[in-house]
Design goal:
α1 crosses α13, α6 packs across α9 and α6 packs across α13. Strands 3-2-1-4-5-6 form a six-stranded parallel beta sheet, sandwiched between helices. Strands 14-13-12-15-16-17 form a six-stranded parallel beta sheet, sandwiched between helices. Strands 7-8-11-9-10 form a five-stranded antiparallel beta sheet. It starts with a strand and ends in a 7-residue tail after the last helix. It is built from 14 helices and 22 strands. A hairpin with a 4-residue loop joins β7 and β8.
């Protein structure tokens, strides 16, 4: 597949890294020569320096025979123009654009993206994706990472094991004997900053970060088995009333269970807009780092604080101050992945990486054939892939134990006839099954070969 990625920032670079690693023909376009050089020197991609909205630049990038254009520059309008030119001049079949401005995303204007208007096949909104990720973190307060699969019937949870975890130093194969009705699979473990897919003889230890896949009905019991308490979040304080904070507050207002929300916003104009847009949420104008204002928001009695300003350091400091004031859970929005190792020592419970969230969302629409969903783990270290099994797939009709999965891949759940099946070595993969599997980044190409996705592309 030939793909042109417009924009070589973190999002564009990560997408290029994924697709180039799977032996796609990738060209990166950016008007910043340093970013283009970084991409070409560190990845197996071609680079073009120039404005991607210029037809001659797209021509130089090979748009005449491109299968897909991904417009991920920092400008919504530039991304729109790129898609228009890719369609009108070069007849590129699939066009994906990242759009930030909420007005462009309003459902009443959805006709704007018809092929005879602005021909964009997929619109990705980072703010909406991040807001959804924040809501998922709030719904599973004991987890530092979470994502839904199989149309919401299965869930991935990332949790850190404490000393009171009941299953420490227990071979994973024994978990099935100890909890015979629990349909949870440990698909990934991060230990000493190394992520791996465990085998049945591996044991878990204190401070391990484990990734678990389970049916949604088993979430509460899984948390209990792994030593975590599940508690509803009834009082939430949000620091930052931008697009993300506002979207989270609006969603919390619309939930059937009453959630009391307060927002702290430093910019008076933004605070006033948020107050006008929200009905039951209390909006406070001031600095989220001000302890007096945090006290005024009753941070000590809040169940969670969500720091989602546009500044990473402010989010980290606000989360730390909220925790020191007695808030039991803090979630921070972090753009810079190099800051993530600081969160553990600072006792910040979970974080949201907007770039990783956006990359996962775009990859969901880029993947070949029957791949329905992709979720990036960590700094693109691994993926959780949801895919339908084709009749032509090498794994169809075979027992899991007989399939030559790479060492870094593990099946975590199977969707079959509307139900979630726990996979074991003796489970037979059937045509039409939807499997959810964890794979280290290096093993993704081999996993996709087993799924034979290229046969069914487009």
């Amino acid at each position: 597949m030939k793909v042109i990625i417009c924009g070589a920032g973190q999002v564009g670079w990560q997408i290029a890294r994924h697709l180039a690693g799977e032996r796609n023909d990738v060209t990166v376009v950016d008007n910043n020569p340093k970013l283009v050089r970084r991409a070409t020197e560190s990845l197996d991609v071609q680079g073009i320096t120039g404005f991607a909205s210029y037809p001659n630049v797209l021509h130089a990038a090979g748009a005449e025979d491109a299968d897909m254009v991904i417009a991920a520059t920092h400008s919504d309008e530039v991304n729109m123009v790129i898609c228009q030119i890719a369609h009108s001049v070069f007849d590129v079949q699939r066009k994906i654009a990242r759009l930030r401005a909420q007005s462009y995303l309003n459902a009443i204007y959805s006709d704007l993206y018809r092929r005879d208007h602005l021909p964009i096949d997929v619109v990705i909104s980072p703010e909406r994706e991040v807001a959804e990720a924040a809501l998922q973190r709030l719904s599973a307060p004991a987890a530092f990472d979470t994502e839904n699969f199989l149309e919401g019937k299965a869930q991935l949870l990332g949790i850190t094991l404490d000393e009171d975890c009941p299953v420490l130093v227990t071979p994973l194969r024994q978990l099935s004997d100890l909890f015979s009705t629990l349909r949870t699979i440990v698909v990934g473990v991060r230990r000493d900053d190394v992520l791996f897919s465990p085998d049945s003889a591996d044991q878990l230890y204190v401070d391990d970060q484990v990734y678990l896949l389970m049916p949604i009905e088993d979430v509460a019991r899984t948390l209990e088995v792994f030593g975590k308490k599940s508690k509803k979040r009834e009082r939430v304080v949000i620091i930052g009333a931008g697009n993300v904070g506002l979207a989270v507050a609006q969603n919390l207002e619309n939930q059937p269970e009453r959630v009391r929300v307060k927002i702290i916003e430093r910019d008076r104009e933004i605070a006033e807009k948020a107050a006008d847009a929200l009905e039951r949420t209390i909006v406070l104008n001031g600095d989220g780092l001000d302890m007096e204002l945090l006290s005024e928001s009753n941070i000590s009695s809040a169940d969670a604080v969500l720091a989602v300003t546009d500044d990473d350091k402010t989010n980290i400091l606000a989360a730390v101050r909220a925790k020191s004031a007695g808030c039991p859970m803090a979630i921070a929005l972090i753009n810079d992945p190099s800051l993530v190792p600081l969160l553990g020592p600072l006792d910040i419970d979970a974080y949201i990486n907007p770039r990783a969230t956006t990359v996962s969302s775009i990859l969901r629409h880029v993947r070949h054939g029957r791949v329905r969903g992709v979720y990036a783990i960590g700094d693109a270290e691994a993926e959780v892939i949801e895919a339908q099994v084709l009749s032509t797939s090498p794994i169809a009709g075979r027992l899991i134990r007989d399939i030559e999965f790479p060492e870094g891949a593990l099946v975590g759940a199977i969707g079959r006839k509307g139900k979630v099946v726990k996979p074991t070595g003796s489970t037979r993969i059937e045509e039409g099954d939807v499997i959810v599997l964890f794979s280290l980044a290096a093993d993704v190409p081999e996993v996709e070969r087993l799924l034979q996705v290229s046969i069914d592309f487009f």
